[in-house]
Structure formats: structure tokens, C-alpha cells
Amino acid sequence: LFEIVLVWKLDRFSRDRYDSAHYKHILKKNGVKVVSAKEHISEGPEGIILESVLEGINEYYSEELRQKVMRGNRESAMKGQTLGGVTPFGYKTENKRLVPDPMTAPVVQEIFTRYAAGDRLVSIARDLNQRGYRTTKGHPFGKSSFKTIFRNTRYIGVYKYMDITKEDPSLRIVSDEQWEAVQSKLSDTA
User: Fold this and answer.
1) Mean pLDDT of the chain
2) Cβ(57)–Cβ(49) under 8 Å?
3) Residues sharing a CB contact under 8 Å with residue 159, sequence separation 6 or more, in sequence order
4) What integer pLDDT is reported at residue 82 of this predicted model?
5) Is this model's pTM higher than 0.70 or not?
6) Residue 30 — left, alpha, or beta (φ > 0 → left; ψ -120 to 50 → alpha)?
7) Which letter does DSSP use for residue 184 in this model?
8) In terms of C-beta distances under 8 Å and separation of at least 24 residues, what long-range contacts does 92-96 make, across chains too?
9) Is residue 50 within 8 Å of 10, Cβ to Cβ?
């Protein structure tokens, strides 16, 4: 149905030499060529070597970028900075750091207190929804909404990223007693 796959540059097709070779081979068997709009690669033997060099450079760039991003994320984590993603319920972001949100942090305390005291998750969710609260993604609370809340160590002031664990008292919303009571209850129901 088509004779060419037109890409802006070869790195838009793939930044992995092995994937590139595999999929180009499949295309070639079906009479389809990969053509780069920006890189003029001749049909002769010199085109083969140029394409191989460009694919190697693309893979190198991708791997180097991955390492830089990982290093940057680790450095940000060591400083206790947020790395993006969804802000946990009960927090807001200020100057690249999570801080308790005065509007929703008390609700997190309430959730932990009520669950530890024996309230059912369904009734906690129903009550929060009736009061107009929503999850950080803007959805109504449901039974499963509490799973990530109850497992997030930031609520007790512990920041975790990969192998980095850092205590940060400014993150604390929940007391150790509330945390332990909920964890104990969760392990009993598991």
C-alpha cells in the first residue's frame, strides 16, 4: 500500500541500531524504503556507511541523554526537589519542593484517623466527595483512591526516589502513630 516511510531524520525512525535494522529489514522485504527528509543518503555503498554512522550517533545521543536525565533526577532528589508527576493529595509545589497544602493536608490527617479508627473506605470516600474534595487527578474519591495515600511515606516526612531515602520533616502531615495504625490495619486485610 506504500513504498516509502518518510521521516524528518533517521532518529525519528529509531534511536536503537538493532530496532532500526530489524524494522528496516522487514520493510525492505516488503519493498518499502525508509527515507530521511533532512539527511541526504545516497543509494550507493557510501550511503550504507553514512546511515550506519548516523544510527550509531543517534543511539549514542539517546543513551547519553538518558544518563544525564538520571543524574539530574538523582541530584534533584538529593535536594528533596519534586521530579514532576502527580502531586500527592495534601501537598502543593513551591520552589520545586512539595509542601503541605493548608487546604487538603488536614483532610489527609482525617483520612488516616478515620481509617485507623475503623471507618470503611467507602464511607470515607462518600463523605469526601459530598464535601467537594477530589483526588489530585480531579476524580471523585473511590475505595481504591486511598491505596497510594496509605503507602506514600512522604506523609510521615520520608522522601524516596529509587535508592535515595531522605528524611524531610517539612513534608510530614501524619503522625507516626497514625501511620503505624493504618499500616497495621492494611497488613491485617492483605
Assistant:
1) 90
2) no
3) 77, 80, 153, 165, 166, 167, 168, 171
4) 82
5) no
6) alpha
7) H
8) none
9) no
